[in-house]
Specification:
The structure is a single chain. The protein has about 190 residues and is α/β, with parallel strands linked by helices. The chain is about 45% helix and about 15% strand. α4 links the parallel β2 and β3.
C-alpha cells in the first residue's frame, strides 16, 4: 500500500481492528488532551510500507495526556492499571506530559501536542486519538513526510542543542530500526 498523506494514515489505522480496540480502551479513561503516540503509529506505517503481513512487536503502547493539576506519577500508574484491566495483553505506558519535562530537564510543555513536537525523531513525533464519534484524529507536529519516506531525522527541538543531539544519536543507535525495517534511512546530526 502506498501512503501519500494524513488521510491515508488515518484510514490505515481505522482499518486496523487491534489499533481501534486499543484507542477505544484509552478513550474510556477520559484523560485530558490524550493521545496514543510514537511507535504505535510509526510502526504501523512502516510495517505497511514494508508489506509485512504481521505486526511488528510493540514494546509499549504510549498513552500520553496533559493534566497540570495532578502531576503525581502514581496517578499515571493508576491509569495504566485501569487499561491493563480492560486489555491485559497490551504493554501500556501512561505518561502525563505536564510532568515529563521535569524528567527530561526541558522547559515545561504547554500541551500534549507540544510534547510530541519535542520527541527526538520526526518519524516518531506522531499521535492519534478518537473524537466523540470514534473517528481517528492524527497529530503530526513535524509532518508525516519523513515517516512515510522511512526517514529518521531529528525534530527541530533536538537539533537546537548539542546535549539533545547526543540524546538523539544514542537513541537511534539503540533503537536500530533498520534491523526491523530495512528501508529505513537514519539521518545523523
Amino acid at each position: 500500500m502506498k501512503i501519500k498523506n494524513e488521510k491515508d494514515v488515518i484510514e490505515l489505522i481505522e482499518q486496523d481492528e487491534w489499533m481501534m480496540t486499543v484507542l477505544k480502551a484509552a478513550k474510556l479513561l477520559h484523560l485530558p488532551d490524550w493521545w496514543i503516540c510514537a511507535g504505535f503509529v510509526r510502526s504501523k506505517i512502516w510495517d505497511t510500507l514494508h508489506s509485512f503481513s504481521q505486526r511488528t512487536n510493540t514494546p509499549d503502547v504510549d498513552v500520553i495526556y496533559f493534566d497540570d493539576t495532578n502531576i503525581e506519577e502514581l496517578e499515571e500508574k493508576k491509569f495504566e492499571e485501569k487499561l491493563k484491566s480492560i486489555l491485559p495483553n497490551v504493554p501500556w505506558s501512561v505518561k502525563n506530559e505536564a510532568r515529563m519535562h521535569i524528567l527530561n530537564d526541558f522547559s515545561p510543555y504547554f500541551s500534549s501536542v507540544d510534547a510530541i513536537s519535542k520527541f527526538p525523531e520526526t518519524a516518531t513525533a506522531l499521535g492519534v486519538r478518537l473524537d466523540d464519534k470514534d473517528n481517528v484524529i492524527l497529530t503530526a507536529p513535524c509532518g508525516i513526510i519523513d515517516v512515510i519516506n522511512c526517514e529518521v531525522k531529528p525534530t527541530p527541538f533536538f537539533i537546537e542543542s548539542k546535549e539533545r543531539a547526543v540524546i538523539y544519536e544514542k537513541r537511534v543507535q539503540k533503537k536500530n530500526w533498520k534491523s526491523t525495517w530495512n528501508k529505513v534511512i537514519v539521518h545523523h546530526i
